[in-house]
Amino acid sequence: MDDKKDIQNLHTARGRIYAFLSNVFMMQPDDTFYKMVSEMLLQLAVLSSNDEISKGVNLLNKFMVKKAAVKDDDYNDFNLEVQRKYTYIMCIPNNAPQEESYYTSSEHLLNQESYEEMALLYEKYKIALDDSSGLSYDHISAELKFMSFLSYKSSEQIVDNDVYHNLIQEQYDFHTNHFEKWVDDLFSNISKSAGEDELLYNGIVYIARGFIKEDKSVLEQLLSYS
Q: Can you give the pTM of this predicted structure?
């Protein structure tokens, strides 16, 4: 991993995966959503050495095969059922709240310390949070978007050793200060709400959990080089 071009490509791939995860936790499933999943499965397949990612890819492939087998006359019913599951899993209050503050505040309140920290990070890097999305700064999609942005920025700034090192350190610290404090609880809540037989959201959870864990190890390795 000493070649700068390889490391640039690594960060670009990280940026794409983080952007994908940000979108799937935010978007309501539709044809655009399914196309995005299908395209990302090709990239994720190369990460087969990660057991959790492999499980997630397998579940999403099963979902896409199931979707492809639906006859035209039955597609509306199929899509309606997917929408129903999305609403139950991701939108019903207290099933699987997606804001860090809920998990890290003692009384499960929103817009607490993690919200303020994320707002400052967005301001620091001049990242815009789309007001129309309705997301809070510490929503899982906003945090994943932040990491996607820094991943792409790392690829761009690799020629400047000091800037690059600071970007990698920022991302490594983000794992410690944010992801590790709450995402496992979030993912567990999503899986619990989804049930064992749910292919789509259990697949997404496996991929997200496996990738986030692996990413911290990658960043640790990169810090030893920079």
A: 0.94
